[in-house]
Structure formats: structure tokens, C-alpha cells
Write a structure and sequence with these properties.
The chain has 347 residues and is mostly helical. Helix content is 78%, strand content 2%. It has 16 helices and 2 strands. Strand 1 and strand 2 form a beta hairpin.
Length: 347
């Protein structure tokens, strides 16, 4: 298949195009309605609370309500390991990449590069494009992110050992609870007590999509809130901030291009090399790429501000990277679809 044919196939993929335009249009809607005063300034924060407390936990849990097969399990475990290795490698390598900056800047930029806003920014987009399997893989990938965020990220900015509060945040977060519970049910569904359905088939009692549709259905409605409310929240947030001062910070631009463009491309290259020896699915590649092509984690920026460690740099970098990501991520999705059409990874 020649490159022109591939481009035509990508541009004619309505699922990809509609997901991208939906995200952009709803972000712009939130931006416009906040600018004109229809939405209050506090709405963005309120919407993000709804998404993080009920929307994304329901989305993550529901994604695991599916049959398991050896290949999906293999890819799921691969993306779990890949998350720990790739983010760990970034933690080590970014110190050398940012070596020209002073020690505090170097540390802040390293944390912000390794830890992106995977939960809030990436998962709604992944769910809109790659469906339940994409969310399942993204939720698994997020396990390593949460562990690094609440341990290494906290220690890097605070200079202290792990606190009890951070351990609580790591394991009692609604999204982590939903992910670990869903992952347990998904992996061990063949060993849990079984229920016979009306058609004679047997499933684990915890497969609520089969055994408790009355519960699964409302969780589906809550999960459906994740993408539109997250995109509205991003638009509301962007409407309240001024780009003028932040855009003059050259370091923030260096960071943004590194985080949104170079790091995801590096991940694709490494996965291409791994694919030579170990088959990697395209969904694994797409999910891990979009999870890394995100602005800095809001918790990491909050750490920077709380402990007064390059707070201005972290704030500027977060602003520039968020705007840049909204513009650039559609190109990343386009590139991923070209790779998919080229057949470089497993379908």
C-alpha cells in the first residue's frame, strides 16, 4: 500500500475524525462559554472533580467487564511492564537531557516529563477512539504512573520520605481502586464463583455486565460522562489563563515539545524495536503513545507549588503544554493511524 493510499484511508476513517473533532469542538465550547460568562470560573474545577471521582473510575472498571483471552492478557501484562520500564527510563534519562539547567530546574523538568496527565487528558481520548480495550490497556498502564507519581514525584519535590498521606492517595484513589478491582476480576474471572445465565453459559458472579445489568447500566452512564466533561473542563480552564507571559518562557516551550512530541515518538521507536522480537499490538502502541503525549500531571505541578520548587516554571510549563497538546494530539492520532494502516504492528 503506497503512502497516498494510506493517507486517504486515514482521512476517510470516520471513527478517528469524529473522535478528534468531538474533543476539539467540546474544548472550544467550554472555552467560549467561559469567556462569555455563561460558565462560572469555578466550573472547570467542579467538572474535573466529577470526572475523577465518578466518571473515570466507572470507565476504568467497566472496561474490564469483558472475556479474557491469552493474547489480550499477554498484551495487558506487556503494557503494565512497559509502563514501569518506559517511565523509569525517562526518570533516569531526562536528568541528562536537561543537564544544561540548574539542579532544581533539572529535577522539576524531569518529574514533569516523566509524569503526564494520563488519567484526565489521555483516557477520555483513548476511550473515544479505541473503545473498551483501549481504556482497559490505559488503566493498566496507569498503575505504574500512579505509583511513580505518589512516591518518586512526591519525594523529588518535597525532599522528604514518603508520607502516610501519599500512601493513602496512592492506594485509596477511586480510579486506582476501580482499576485494581476490575483487573482482578478480569484476570481471575475463570476462578471466581460462577453463575449460570439464562442461555446456559456460565460467567463469574462479578461480571456485572452479565449478572447485574441493573448495576452495570448506570455505571455505563457515569462512564459516558468522562470524555465530554473532561473536554469541557479543559476548555473552561484554558479560558481563565493568559498565554502572553507564559509563552515568553523559552524553557516551557522546550519542555512542551519534548513532552508532547519527542517522548511519544521515542516510545514508538522503542516499541518498533521490541516488536522485532516480541509481537506488540497496535492498540498497545497507540495507548502508550497517547498516555505519554500529555501535559504534566496536575498533582506534580501541585507538588512544585506546595514545596516552592520551581513553581513558576511548573505553572508556565503546564499552561503551554496543555495548549500545545490540544493542538498537537490530533497529529499524533493521525500518525498512529498511518502506522496502523502500514501494518507495522499486530492488528
Amino acid at each position: 500500500m503506497d503512502l497516498l493510499t494510506i493517507f486517504k484511508a486515514v482521512l476517510s476513517n470516520q471513527a478517528i475524525l469524529s473522535a478528534v473533532t468531538s474533543a476539539l469542538f467540546i474544548i472550544l465550547l467550554g472555552f467560549f462559554l467561559t469567556k462569555r460568562g455563561t460558565f462560572k470560573a469555578s466550573l472547570g474545577k467542579d467538572l474535573s472533580t466529577v470526572v475523577l471521582t465518578v466518571g473515570l473510575p466507572a470507565l476504568s472498571f467497566n472496561a474490564f467487564m469483558s472475556d479474557i483471552n491469552p493474547e489480550t492478557l499477554r498484551q495487558g501484562m506487556m503494557i503494565l511492564i512497559w509502563g514501569f520500564i518506559f517511565q523509569g527510563a525517562l526518570i533516569f534519562l531526562m536528568k541528562f537531557y536537561y543537564v544544561r539547567y540548574n539542579k532544581d530546574q533539572q529535577q522539576a523538568l524531569t518529574v514533569l516529563t516523566a509524569l503526564g496527565s494520563t488519567t484526565f487528558f489521555a483516557i477520555p481520548i483513548i476511550g473515544a477512539i479505541y473503545g473498551a480495550q483501549g481504556v482497559l490497556f490505559a488503566s493498566i498502564f496507569n498503575i505504574s504512573y500512579r505509583i511513580y507519581l505518589y512516591s518518586w514525584g512526591y519525594i523529588s519535590f518535597s525532599g522528604m520520605r514518603m508520607s502516610r498521606e501519599n500512601l493513602k492517595n496512592m492506594f485509596m484513589n477511586p480510579i486506582i481502586i476501580a482499576t485494581l478491582l476490575g483487573l482482578f476480576i478480569w484476570i481471575f474471572q475463570g476462578y471466581l464463583p460462577q453463575v449460570t445465565l439464562a442461555d446456559g453459559s456460565r460467567v463469574a458472579f462479578a461480571r456485572i455486565d452479565k449478572t447485574a445489568v441493573w448495576l452495570f447500566k448506570p455505571m455505563g452512564f457515569l462512564a459516558g460522562l468522562s470524555s465530554p466533561l473532561a473536554w469541557l473542563s479543559i476548555g473552561c480552564t484554558l479560558a481563565q489563563i493568559s498565554l502572553a507571559e507564559a509563552s515568553r518562557d523559552r524553557t516551557s516551550w522546550v519542555y512542551s515539545i519534548t513532552k508532547i512530541v519527542l517522548v511519544p515518538l521515542a516510545g514508538i521507536v522503542v516499541l518498533l524495536l521490541i516488536n522485532i522480537a516480541i509481537p506488540v499490538s497496535f492498540t498497545t502502541v497507540a495507548v502508550s503513545t497517547l498516555m505519554m503525549a500529555t501535559p504534566p500531571a496536575t498533582v506534580a505541578v501541585a507538588y512544585s507549588i506546595k514545596f516552592d520548587r520551581e513553581a513558576l516554571l511548573a505553572s508556565n510549563a503546564s499552561l503551554i503544554a496543555t495548549v500545545f497538546a490540544v493542538i498537537w494530539v490530533p497529529f499524533t492520532i493521525f500518525l498512529l493511524e498511518v502506522i496502523n494502516q502500514m501494518g507495522l504492528f499486530q492488528a
